[in-house]
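Example S7 (structure tokens).
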């Protein structure tokens, strides 16, 4: 009888602990980082975003809080810096982009973010990074806007977020080896991975998606275009490069804001370098798929390459001797 009375609370505690472990494991698998695959990590890269309620964005905080010092350093030292949202990232994350810069012997970095990120976050981030780029390529896809994105606004106006982003970084050190060796431990939610050396993105998971065709959207919110143009003028005026070394483009999507981008470029007195190609598709409803990104970025580099080379040549001849 005595043994039975002793064993009951022990058994109860054991069952309770086991239930908590199972519940926590289930939450990690369905709502945390284990909801996303580990198949997209570059050799030298990290998970920038996992579509799970208890994980979500890591990329914003990784660069803002200096949790990825190599990525921040290479972004700051890049000769050509690309700015924009996730459409810019997927539009230029291609072998064509890599090949052009490798052939030219020029370093580049794709400094784009998810959640339709814009200058409200990227401008103060540039102030922290103090980049030494000689050319800026900007995707004029609502980049010049003053409405905070969800993660950008939380970082700029919130508190105690560094600890949370540090935890996300630590979880990657657990998830990556475990799910690489036992893929069934992880789910298939959408995930973006960033390469530290050049900022290129790779996506895994998500879907199934309809490969929508790229098209220009009819103009919308035209009453805001002057406001966007004013923000653009202020932003560009603060970049430490010649205005002709600020290259504006708009990466195509199933609803490309081409007319809006043209209006902003015209207000700045700059050309919009945005090739128009037939037969482009998205892998979801907004981002170029890999074959389309390859074609479009190759066409862009052919168009913008001479301008980039001119700007770099000009900066090298005007620089003081070492």
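Recovered sequence:
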């Amino acid at each position: 009888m005595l043994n039975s009375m002793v064993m009951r609370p022990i058994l109860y505690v054991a069952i309770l602990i086991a239930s908590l472990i199972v519940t926590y494991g289930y939450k990690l698998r369905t709502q945390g980082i284990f909801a996303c695959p580990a198949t997209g990590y570059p050799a030298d890269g990290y998970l920038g975003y996992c579509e799970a309620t208890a994980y979500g964005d890591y990329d914003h905080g990784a660069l803002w809080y200096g949790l990825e010092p190599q990525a921040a350093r290479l972004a700051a030292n890049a000769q050509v810096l690309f700015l924009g949202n996730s459409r810019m990232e997927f539009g230029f994350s291609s072998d064509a982009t890599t090949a052009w810069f490798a052939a030219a012997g020029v370093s580049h970095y794709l400094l784009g973010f998810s959640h339709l990120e814009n200058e409200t976050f990227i401008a103060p981030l540039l102030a922290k990074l103090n980049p030494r780029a000689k050319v800026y390529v900007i995707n004029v896809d609502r980049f010049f806007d003053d409405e905070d994105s969800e993660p950008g606004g939380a970082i700029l106006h919130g508190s105690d977020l560094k600890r949370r982003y540090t935890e996300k970084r630590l979880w990657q050190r657990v998830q990556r080896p475990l799910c690489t060796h036992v893929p069934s431990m992880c789910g298939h939610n959408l995930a973006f991975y960033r390469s530290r050396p050049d900022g290129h993105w790779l996506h895994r998971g998500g879907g199934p998606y309809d490969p929508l065709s790229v098209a220009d959207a009819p103009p919308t919110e035209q009453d805001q275009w002057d406001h966007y143009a004013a923000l653009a003028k202020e932003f560009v005026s603060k970049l430490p490069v010649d205005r002709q070394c600020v290259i504006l483009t708009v990466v195509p999507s199933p609803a490309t804001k081409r007319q809006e981008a043209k209006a902003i470029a015209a207000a700045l007195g700059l050309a919009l370098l945005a090739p128009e190609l037939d037969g482009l598709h998205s892998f979801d409803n907004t981002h170029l798929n890999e074959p389309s990104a390859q074609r479009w970025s190759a066409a862009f580099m052919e168009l913008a390459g001479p301008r980039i080379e001119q700007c770099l040549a000009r900066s090298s001849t005007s620089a003081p001797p070492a």
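Notes on this example. Strands lie at 45-50, 56-57, 80-85, 108-113, 135-139, 191-195, 201-204, 246-249.
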